[in-house]
Design goal:
DUF1289, mainly alpha, DUF1289 domain-containing protein
Amino acid sequence: MTQRIASPCVGLCSTTVGDRVCRGCQRNDDEIRDWFAYSDAERRSRMHELDALRAEVAAEYLRVSDAQMLQAQLERHRIRFRADQPPLSRAVELLRVGRSRIRDLARYGLQPHGKGSGLSADELHEAIMKTLLERGEARRLASDPLTQHDERHA
């Protein structure tokens, strides 16, 4: 029996308007198209890659000061997350959904640092998303056999 692997889709697919990397879930257009054809192991691997990407980028801007508080706020506001999702990846979801309403990140178990010092929740979200899109595009290009072929023959 296979275990159901959740889709990383957050319902904001920007690939339908021409983006090669989705602004909502950071999957590339090929991953979105092929998602249900992947084996459970491949989907699990892709979910792990996406979580790692979000956590890596978010760590440049934020720290999780209280993971339990973060989870309680996600539950309170009914923001979807997975049990195996790293706290910083969860923080990206919180900012995506609640950025305009969050005034004090400490009440959500988060603390801006590094590139995020002095930024509002809205500004943090914008900066994190910009970096995620840049790195998502780099990830897409690294996995595209045509791009790799073109670079080798340039």
